[in-house]
Amino acid sequence: MYERIYNAYLSLGKGDQAELKRCNLEKLANCPAYFRILKFTGAKDTTQTQRILFLLVAIDVSTEPEANSVAIALLKAGVKETQIIQITRSGDNAVEYLKRQLVRCKNVNLSSLGKLSQYWGEQARRQLLKEFILAEQD
Questions:
Q1: Beta partners for 68?
Q2: Which of 3, 7, 72, 133 could form a disulfide with 68 if both were Cys (CB 3.0 to 4.6 A apart)?
Q3: Dmax over Cα atoms in the chain, in whole Å?
């Protein structure tokens, strides 16, 4: 599912891609480019799909198996533990805070990012913090 959405995003014209980059999560649901993505992929119009697309836009995503998980990419980008804690505790704005940090990252694994955004909730936030701290110690 993540690859279909990402490939549909890449197949959009530059104007539609730019429009999606300017959208916050709330405005994305009413963006014409979002509906084009739904048409290309056959995905349902859900908050999960919106989150997935929102986090895939403007992020250096890689489909390679050796790409970094989200936690490792954040660590390599120099994100501090306190910023990850803020993401895990920030409630409704957490996805937007996460995206601000992900923009700094390179070579983020598509599957890792897709799963995190699809299943975003208390458990996913806790898992992100856990992976970040464990990767930090290595």
A1: 108
A2: 72
A3: 44
Is the pTM above the cut of 0.85?
A: yes
CATH of region 59-138: 1.10.520.40
- Per-domain residue ranges of the chain: 1-58, 59-138
How far apart (Å, rounded) are the C-alpha atoms in residues 70 and 114? Answer: 10
Distance CA 49, CA 28 (A): 10
Collect all residues with Cβ–Cβ distance below 8 Å to 49 and sequence separation of at least 6.
5, 38, 43
HEC assignment per residue over 72-117: HHHHHCCCCHHHHHHHHHCHHHHHHHHHHHHCCCCCEEHHHHHHHH
How far, in Å, CA of 30 to CA of 12, rounded?
A: 17
The three-point CA angle 89-72-119 to 5° equals: 50
Q: Is the dihedral of CA 121, 126, 131, 137 positive or negative?
A: positive
To which H or E segment does residue 62 belong? strand 61-62
Over the stretch 39-72, which tens digit does the pLDDT of each residue have?
Answer: 999 999 998 899 999 999 888 888 888 889 999 9
